[in-house]
Amino acid sequence: DAGVIQSPRHEVTEMGQEVTLRCKPISGHDYLFWYRQTMMRGLELLIYFNNNVPIDDSGMPEDRFSAKMPNASFSTLKIQPSEPRDSAVYFCASSSLAGGGSYEQYFGPGTRLTVT
Amino acid sequence: AQSVTQLDSHVSVSEGTPVLLRCNYSSSYSPSLFWYVQHPNKGLQLLLKYTSAATLVKGINGFEAEFKKSETSFHLTKPSAHMSDAAEYFCVVTLRMDTGRRALTFGSGTRLQVQP
Questions:
Q1: How far apart, in whole angstroms, are the C-alpha atoms of residue A65 and residue A18?
Q2: What is the pLDDT of residues A70-108, one digit of tens each?
Q3: Is the C-alpha dihedral spanning A62, B25, B93, A42 positive or negative?
Q4: A7, A31, A83, A112: which could form a disulfide with A95 (CB 3.0–4.6 Å)?
């Protein structure tokens, strides 16, 4: 398997612009997670899905952030409008409990977002 | 409520000497516990996991961890450090609360430096 795929790997945008981050989970995984990592706040869970349904979005910082999972193989995290304080590395991860799975998550390489 | 505490934000060892990265957790339920490693500008990689089987867990790259319920600890060890072990390490506790809901808690991370 190719692992979790994220795109783009790097994104530089101006304040006020819309940003869309994309994630393809590992085939067969039924959980998908979005995280944000910064030096100041460390690794934060933003939202997670189970079977394409958002289960917990309490980590989403504000209404400018939204996430969707239209099908089992694709998810997006959108920021509109973007602000400089959104600059961070955004990770997507997936996992599965099938076959006695044990909750471990497999992370993508991340998207480094810079908002100027 | 659950929490995870990594007792050291930075650890520095000499190459060839033992590594000890400390992690304590609190949980009202039987948790699953993990250690992840993050090399600079990379995603998180699973090192090892504990899921209520053997209390001594062996992972990749010679790392191992021991689950001690009486001490609520899950410390990560390696007998002999290698330069390539320099990275940030995260202790994670996760458990299933209700159907479809999971609580995930990341530690704040420990940066391991390996001196030649």
A1: 10
A2: 999 999 999 999 999 999 999 999 988 765 555 788 999
A3: positive
A4: A31
